[in-house]
Protein 1
Amino acid sequence: MRRSWLYIIGAALVVAAVVGILLARNSGTNHADKTASKNAASTNHSTAFPQRKACSIFTLADAKQVLGDNAKGGETANSSSSNDLEVSACNYTQDTGSNAPVSASDSASLLARAPKTGAGTTSNQNQFGPLKPANSEPVAGYGDNAYWDPQYGQLNILKNNTWYIVSFGPITPASRSLDQTKQLADILIDKM
């Protein structure tokens, strides 16, 4: 039981790091952009921006396909949503038993940043343009645009203006590979 909490805490830390990075990338928004997003939020209707929740896309059944029948986890509490973006995360870990080290386990996660306004859409699109990490590698065949971020071991996918971050593999981000992460992305892409 104690070991499963370590997996959940490890997955939560990975998601917290991702959220922190996302917030840091968006902290450069100037006051005019914030005012524009508030105005856009008051004029847009939620039907124009369908919300995509991470755990409705990435289910336990999906996690078991890549992590095995002992996969555990689910929705992760997230406080980084804003007036412009609905952020949700779903994390699963591999329960390898109480005698195995946490570092020997794999984890799988999906973070979804669904726009609620035009400003949210622009923010997501900017992550695949001027704000894309310099060391990223373009990836074809996933959504409208995609890239691999080797520093964080994440496949970033822009599909229908929603930004998805897919992670799969060892707990340590630098140990993950694009090919391994594509296994999870292939399962999820049609539901995104």
Protein 2
Amino acid sequence: MIIGAGGAARAVLVALRRRSGGKVHVLNRTLAKARALVAEIDRSFIAHGFDAFAELAPHIGLVINTSAIGMHGTRFDWFDLSKLAKTTLVTDIVYTPLVTPLLTEVAAHGLRTIDGLGMLLHQAIPGFEAWFGVRPTVTPALRASIQATLEP
């Protein structure tokens, strides 16, 4: 399940299109925007409005939040996150805060989570290489260094 239908969702869907796997559901507040994204990227993806969350949640193995919800303490008050399967992995591409309200809530339900810092670090590699001629390696030390600048 991809939440959001903007540029970050587009990038995630392009990556998912390259892999074989199960169904990919794209949920967005505006159904027309989700449909347009699905039509552009891969018609085998399935577009939904946010109202489809409760029905889909028990059958989803991976949730990726690509929306801005989570920044500044905003949350998905309209999603019943307890409906997600206990085996669902939830990731949020938001990295400020590192642990978003979404990640906090699903962790309280015992689900595994991944924060958005890894995506930030890995998407920076091509730009850094193009500018400085050196391809950086994302290491635990680099992650810790960047994370230290994010936390108060």
Protein 3
Amino acid sequence: MKEYLYVKLLLYAYPKLEVLEDAERSSAEIAAALSFHARCDAYTSAVKVADRVLMARRLGLLCDTLEEIISACTEEERFLLEYKYFRRKAELAAEPAEKRLLGYSKRTYFRLQQNLLSKVAAMLRRRGYTRERVAEEFGEYPPFRRVYRALREGRERAVIKKRREGALEFTQNSSAGAGRFFPLKTNAITASTASAAAQMATICTGVSEGEAGSSVSEGEGSGVAETCSR
């Protein structure tokens, strides 16, 4: 049902929220440190940093809210959420999904998932996460925007990781188009942040040694979060 698209968006995003939050915070710190080297004026640079800090806070609050909701679900409901939306290998491997699903007919499975989606939607609304709020806070956030577009266009399979030959697969679906919807690992963020930090150190060292007038490639900072969302 279309009114629940934003709920699906948040559920698909849940496993990556901490990664995205860390990326936004790291990017904000590096962008602030490199603000003297930005092409834009000081006010615009400060607004960009503030926007990243605000987005990190929003992601953190959303993560806390979803954790609270998930913990309030039954064991069966948590498994259904894990199986359809989260697809975290360790959790699913603990009790094979095929074994857990033996007691469900296809019709029962889809009915349970729909009922659970309605329940999560109600729990989100009680905590203030309406469709309007999600649109206002995350409507322009690239990772969320790409997932929502796929859901709206009926391309949910582009978001869900595939299962093949009866086994659970955890590879990125190539039909996702322009690349990954969400970062897969924190390693990518750590590497990107380290690279940006090294660049910052080089620039700052040059300036402190009186090399401010020397040729330095221009840029606005790291863009860690955007890199991770591609």
Protein 4
Amino acid sequence: MHNKLEMAQDKFMEGIGKLAESVGVSRFIAQLYAVLYLSDRPLSLDDLVERLKASKGNISLNIRELEKWGGVKNIWVKGSRKDYYEADPDIKKFVLKKIRSGVQKRIGQVTDMMDEFKELINSGNDEMGDEDKMIVKTYHEKLKNIENMKSLADKALMLADKLL
């Protein structure tokens, strides 16, 4: 590969890595996907080791994660016993699926936190004075705002499903 092309690919991988990290995705996984996405042919684990300067074990582990996400697939190459991989070229589908998964996880965490919060504020209601009961009432009103936001996120996920 020409030096200028390799430099351009490195810049692209660096940018993708930073972007992924900013949304909570592993920098290395994003860079691995970027190498495969830019490649005009399937790449073996050895090719990826050479290109990313990482261990075969690390690449293998992260390739499996990308396979789970639907971002890459294992490709058979006639005459070779090595494992080869290529990126799913439909980057929109892959990215939306990953964003959807992350949002679902966060919604689950918020739901669990809210359930625990509700249980705690309701558990001593019989023993509370009027002032504390007013605070509990205010908390419930504020929780409704969070539930509305959660509902909006659920609707956004349904829209993402339609896009996929």
